[in-house]
Design brief:
Order of helices and strands of chain B: HHHHHHHHHHEEEEEHHHHHEHEEHEE
Distance between the termini of chain A: 38 Å
Order of helices and strands of chain A: EHEHEHEHEHEHHHHH
Number of helices of chain A: 10
Strand order of the largest sheet of chain B: 3-2-1-5-4
Strand content of chain B: 5-15%
Largest interface: A-B, 33 and 37 residues
Structural class of chain A: alpha/beta
Oligomer: heterodimer
Distance between the termini of chain B: 57 Å
Number of strands of chain A: 6
């Protein structure tokens, strides 16, 4: 699988390239800013781009804006955003228009080759990815009347995976249960929480995120 | 006292010249220019006394000093003009009468020209100077130097002390020239003075009417008298010339009456303002209104200079420091300027009216000035507090960004390379690297919390609603965020609203009463409003929250209200957002 990395800190970029190469990815380029990244994606149309949100010149949201451009112009290239903010706002901004083949991972997690590789593979096959830490923060937050209390342990688990962007297929692999069982759990969670079910897994992430933040 | 010296001197001169004038006019009524009947003598004496008195009254004010002085000088000149020349004794009086008989109307015309109805141009000064020169030199001193009374057939005349060289023909022609020129200068001064006066604003015309109109009339009549004299082979005193002169004297008496009436009017105004000051707590708007009315300028402005050289209005707001193009009256106390009254420059001619009004308003002005300065100082303090908060916030933002872009990124790199090193190593060494990597991960999580505590990046990046949602996502206390972001953005207002909610959450965390917080934001182009409903938070905690938030609320010029019932505390805060 062919990947480009956009990260302005050269040492970190090199470390990421080595980590991904070791994990069996084909790193076809490293960019230090958004322009370089867009050029690289245009040239080599990789399967996925790993993008730091804050890049020169302003170090605000160059990476996010480049990711939106990539999702619009290069349907074959998936994007995975990296940031140190444990906040849902960047993920929501990206997923709002382009839920499929997009993801947001906490930058603290990039040392973990397995988690990073898994996230890259998932976005490249069309799922969306939201960092599990963000979802667990949302599940933990205080709630006035907590409808989550009505969920069983298994249902909570499935809600968390849905929120992280897993499709039903991925969930049944993850939990080693049948597809039918997953589907019935998903229906039950939606019924208990009163969320209108969306057939497409990437769209349903937004509904769940909105629900968890309400 | 200098302003009193001249009137006293002139009054003395009027008396000294007046006694022989009365005696001579009564003894030689036929040759007296104004006649010798008791009423004629009385009218002329009254005119002289009026000119000195009215002139003295005007000379004490700066604006009317020049015309007042000219009017004062006209007093003795009137007495001289009333004296029958040929009978004047002794020689000194005879000489004075010879040289100065024509001065009085010119002095009165010049007074009319110089009364303060507007800026005094070069032309006005020139006209007055020419008028006085013609009367004093061409018609007065010069022919006097050429006059030998005995040689001219006046054997009873005393000696002419001014005689330099007898030249009767030259003298006769000089006198005719003087008369011809007086026709011009009298008319010229009269019309110039009248034109100036007519163009002045109403209140200025009113205040200056006696001197301007009276002086101009006298000047015009002097031109008529000169014309009448020119029409005769030799100038003589006849019925028309006498009638003209007595009319001029009557005008001077009326002029003095007018000056007195104006002074009375000014005093009445002063006592009205003084009464107002005593009747009510001084109010800047009412005071400004009274002053504006006194000079008939609705645009009149009351401003107060501060020690730093800036100028403020009654509300304590900065005013234009220069007041360019405006006339200024100042109120002083112990050499310090308390207040300035700015008014239309064209009204400067009525400044004695305003000056009186300002003096009567003294105490009230001081009070209003002190209030204005206090307001300005409060505004300074508020601005300073706002700057301190803004600077502090900017510093926090910078710290958060530095932490994020610096230390956090390096720790992420360190973590990654430790993982890579662990992959390269084996056994116990690999485990050590893993252990070190876990420590760095914990440090990263700590640093992230610290950075968020220093400054919530979501607030400045994406606004109040997103900032509050981020706060809610982290909050262990149930916190729901409602409403929509207002159109206007104000960093200091948003920061204050955010902190108000954050302090509420912080206070609620320490309670085990199961508090629940609902925050709603709304607003428009001008204001930002936040409403916090906190169930399970009581009086004491509400006071704690407000104590922490009050400085920020005030720094953002906001206002907050707290309402507490047994079950719920509601905090409502409104902040202005106008840029």
């Amino acid at each position: 699988m062919r990947v480009v990395i956009a990260e302005d800190m050269a040492l970190l970029r090199q470390g990421l390239a080595r980590l991904l190469t070791d994990a069996g990815f084909d790193v076809v380029g490293g960019a230090g800013d958004a322009d370089e990244l867009l050029e690289m994606v245009a040239r080599s149309e990789p399967d996925a781009a790993l993008i730091d949100i804050k890049m020169p010149p302003t170090h605000t949201d160059e990476g996010l804006r480049a990711a939106v451009v990539i999702r619009e112009r290069y349907p074959k290239t998936a994007v995975l955003l990296l940031s140190s903010y444990l906040e849902a706002r960047y993920a929501e901004a990206l997923l709002k228009d382009h839920p499929a083949r997009s993801g947001y991972l906490l930058k603290d997690r990039v040392y973990d080759a397995a988690a990073l590789g898994d996230a890259l593979r998932r976005v490249s096959i069309g799922e969306c990815v939201i960092d599990p830490e963000i979802i667990s923060q949302l599940l933990r937050r205080g709630r006035e009347r907590n409808p989550l209390d009505a969920l069983t342990e298994r249902e909570r688990e499935i809600l968390s995976l849905m929120a992280q962007g897993y499709s039903n297929d991925s969930i049944c692999h993850q939990l080693v249960i049948s597809r039918r069982t997953v589907e019935s759990h998903v229906s039950s969670v939606f019924a208990k929480l009163g969320i209108i079910e969306s057939p497409e897994s990437s769209r349903r992430v937004l509904a769940v995120l909105a629900y968890l933040q309400a | 006292m200098a302003s009193l010296a001249l009137p006293v001197l002139m009054a003395t001169a009027v008396l000294a010249l007046g006694v022989p004038m009365v005696r001579l006019a009564a003894s030689y009524p036929d040759t007296a220019p104004g006649g010798g009947a008791p009423w004629q003598i009385a009218l002329q004496a009254a005119a002289a006394a009026s000119a000195v008195t009215a002139g003295a009254a005007l000379a004490v004010h700066r604006a009317t000093a020049l015309c007042g002085t000219l009017l004062t000088l006209a007093g003795p000149a009137i007495v001289i003009a009333a004296t029958p020349t040929a009978s004047a004794r002794p020689a000194l009086l005879f000489t004075i009468v010879l040289a100065a008989a024509a001065l009085a109307p010119a002095l009165l015309g010049a007074a009319a020209l110089t009364c303060p109805v507007g800026p005094l141009s070069r032309w006005h000064r020139l006209a007055a100077a020419v008028g006085l020169t013609v009367a004093g030199l061409v018609s007065g001193l010069l022919p006097a130097t050429l006059f030998d009374p005995q040689a001219s057939g006046c054997f009873t005349c005393p000696a002419n002390l001014a005689e330099v060289h007898a030249a009767p023909d030259l003298r006769a022609s000089l006198i005719r020239w003087g008369l011809a020129l007086t026709v011009g200068t009298g008319t010229g001064m009269a019309f110039l003075a009248a034109w100036r006066w007519l163009r002045a604003p109403r209140i200025v015309r009113l205040v200056n009417a006696p001197v301007a109109v009276g002086g101009a009339s006298v000047a015009l009549l002097s031109s008529a008298a000169a014309g009448h004299a020119l029409a005769q082979p030799v100038p003589v005193i006849d019925a028309p010339s006498r009638a003209i002169w007595l009319t001029q004297c009557a005008i001077v008496v009326l002029m003095a009456g007018g000056v007195a009436a104006t002074a009375l009017r000014t005093r009445r105004l002063a006592s009205q303002i003084a009464a107002q000051v005593l009747a009510a707590t001084p109010d800047a708007a009412a005071l400004q209104h009274s002053l504006a009315k006194s000079i008939d300028d609705p645009g009149l402005a009351l401003v107060f200079p501060r020690d730093d050289g800036t100028v403020i209005d009654a509300a304590g707001q900065p005013a234009d420091a220069s007041g360019a193009g405006l006339a200024v009256a100042t109120a002083r106390r112990a050499s310090r300027t308390i207040a300035e009254v700015r008014y239309r420059a064209e009204l400067a001619g009525a400044q004695q009216l305003l000056g009186t009004a300002v003096r009567s308003a003294g105490l009230a002005l001081e009070h209003v000035a002190a209030q204005a300065r206090l307001r300005a100082e409060l505004a300074d303090l508020a601005a300073s507090r706002r700057r301190i908060i803004e600077d502090g916030d900017a510093e926090r933002r910078r710290l958060e960004r530095d932490l994020h872009d610096g230390a956090q990124q390096r720790l992420i790199g360190l973590q990654l390379f430790m993982q890579l090193a662990a992959g390269d190593a084996s056994g116990a060494q690999a485990e050590t690297y893993h252990e070190a990597r876990r420590i760095v991960s914990t440090a990263l999580a700590d640093l992230r919390d610290l950075a968020h505590g220093i400054h919530p990046a979501a607030l400045t990046d994406d606004g109040l609603v997103t900032g509050l949602r981020t706060l809610a996502n982290r909050s262990p206390v149930p916190l729901s965020i409602g409403g929509t972001a207002p159109i206007a953005r104000s960093a200091v207002a948003e920061a204050a609203a955010y902190r108000l909610v954050a302090y509420t959450v912080h206070t609620a965390r320490q309670l085990d009463s199961g508090p629940v917080i609902r925050a709603a934001v709304d607003g428009d182009e001008a204001i930002l409003r936040v409403r916090i409903e906190a169930d399970g938070i009581g009086d004491k905690q509400a006071a704690e929250i407000m104590a922490r938030a009050s400085d920020r609320v005030a720094a953002a010029n906001g206002s907050a209200a707290v309402e507490t019932t047994a079950a719920r505390t509601t905090i409502t805060a409104v902040f202005p957002c106008a840029s």
